[in-house]
Amino acid sequence: MTDVLPAQSARISPDRFRQAFRRHPAGVVVVTVDAGRGPVGFTATSLSSLSLDPPLVSFGIAVTSSCWPHVRDAGTAVINLLGAEQEALARRFATSGINRFAEPTCWHRLAGGEPALDGTAGLLTIRIERLVAAGDHRLVLARVEEAWLPDGHRPLVHHDGRYHSI
User: Is 14-47+68-122+147-165 a CATH 2.30.110.10 domain?
Assistant: First the structure.
């Protein structure tokens, strides 16, 4: 049987749109930046590779996010790839109204001053090249400058509103 798309209809509701993407598994990262006002970070599942040459990635951030002004003003950032054992870290950086870098978060600064989380499944240092308006979000296009990828980590994945590992 072939699936047939429904005829053009009214605009999809935000709840239905959200439901569709809850069914699509995605890797979990924490993006960290410091635009000169102290470290900030947020959990994201929108990371995507764009280009091999040059090495480009993208991720989205809501313009209503408290982190947005920092990302907008930063030239560089770190994408912290989370491992299966880091669900608590993903939840912490998805929580509003707290100091996400306070205890128990363990972190350090890289040589360029960017904040990076300790013990992650990997780090990508990025240079932000372009911000693209996309509805209520901004699409961040960035060049990957370095990658640190230790062995032995299973990835943290988000699917249907819950965290999983593969």
Answer: yes
